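TASK: fixed-backbone design
INPUT:
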């Protein structure tokens, strides 16, 4: 669980850095120092990082088979308590 939290923090940092890179590349394009190809490339990497971020988040909230704490009538394993 601790490893997933660390991975979540790292992927958030990566996403933030790619977002900054896209903004900087768009600014450079406005000054004529870049090309649309580079902006699209940076945006593609940003989208990949966001998809990875979503996958890590999904792993964090995925039910664990050894957890069986009842939560409102449903076990964390996804089975309904009768």
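OUTPUT:
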């Amino acid at each position: 669980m601790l490893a997933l939290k660390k991975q979540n923090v790292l992927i958030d940092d990566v996403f933030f850095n790619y977002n900054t890179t896209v903004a900087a590349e768009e600014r450079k394009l406005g000054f004529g120092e870049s090309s649309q190809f580079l902006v699209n490339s940076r945006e593609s990497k940003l989208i990949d990082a966001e998809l990875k971020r979503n996958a890590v988040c999904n792993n964090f909230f995925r039910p664990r088979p050894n957890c069986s704490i009842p939560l409102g009538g449903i076990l964390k394993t996804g089975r309904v308590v009768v």
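COMMENT: The CA atoms of residues 15 and 47 lie 9 Å apart.
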